[in-house]
Amino acid sequence: MNQLPLFITIRGKPVILLGEGDAAEAKKRLIERAGGVCVDEGNPEARLAFVAIEDTEEAAIVAARLKKRGLLVNVVDQPELCDFTTPAIVDRDPLLIAVGTGGASAGLAKMVRQAIERILPARLGELALRLQSARNQMRARWSDGPTRRRQLDTALAPGGFLDPLDPDSADKVSEWLEATEQTPASGVFLIDLSSPDPEELTLRTARLLGQADHVYVDGPIGDDLVNRARADAIRHLGAPEANPPSGLVIHLRLRHGSGHG
Fold first, then answer.
1. Taking the CB of residue 77, how many other CB atoms lie within 10 A of it?
2. Which ranges of the chain does DSSP label H, i.e. alpha helix?
3. Contact present, 66 and 42 (Cβ < 8 Å)
4. Is the pLDDT of residue 258 over 70?
5. What is the rounded (10 degree) CA torsion for 171, 173, 174, 179?
């Protein structure tokens, strides 16, 4: 991963935009869509800047000048000069999905975005808002944080009560909170990998990794695969001990003789 994906709040804040033409207009629409205020170079409060100047040498000079002021700068069509790049966006407000290539190919990012657009229901953002409104009810029912997370993971799993790909899932949040408690996955799951290649994970394995509380890495399994687990899942080296921790424990083991030839 060559970039750190971040979502920056710019609503009501000044953002420098320099340049004219279609590229500048596109950046202007993006900034205003996120609630930012486009300003010129003289604004002392801005912390972000977009340079959409067609002359590459002039754009580089302007970018250097802005960077000396401590601003983070995006230069259109010159990724080597960019402190940040703007991704293709799937907008299901407040749910946002950003697809980026680090400036390598905006066209590729666009095609991936369009593929995701076809999959996600239009009301998915409404599900996010309903879950936000239900936070206090969820805390009241499941006071323990890990238990609450596992219950939500179970509900949001494919085919679950609140399956995100179900276009009517937003209407089921209240019903889910009143329903009989679903039993989330727990215990130790041994996963014998035939390959350390993350692209060869089964859908079931990928889902379990995404829900795991603990991941035991038993063998020469690279970070590319292990990082498919939740970011806050606790990593361990070797096999689980006789009395493993509570919650969902995944034991990743590479089958004997497996690996890259």
1. 13
2. 22-33, 56-68, 106-119, 124-133, 135-141, 145-156, 173-178, 203-211, 223-226
3. no
4. no
5. 120
d(CA 169, CA 158): 12
16: nearest Cα among 68, 52, 54, 60:
52
110-123 pLDDT, tens digit per residue, is: 999 999 999 999 99
Cα of 22 vs its chain's centroid, Å:
29
pLDDT tens track for 164-209: 999 999 999 999 999 877 766 678 999 999 888 888 888 888 888 8
CA dist 206 and 109 (Å) reads 23
C-alpha to C-alpha distances, 203 to 53, 190, 206, nearest whole angstrom = 45, 15, 5
Question: Model's pTM, two decimal places?
Answer: 0.67
Sign of the C-alpha dihedral computed for residues 34, 36, 37 and 42 taken in this order: negative
- Phi, psi (deg, nearest 5) at residue 236: -135, 150
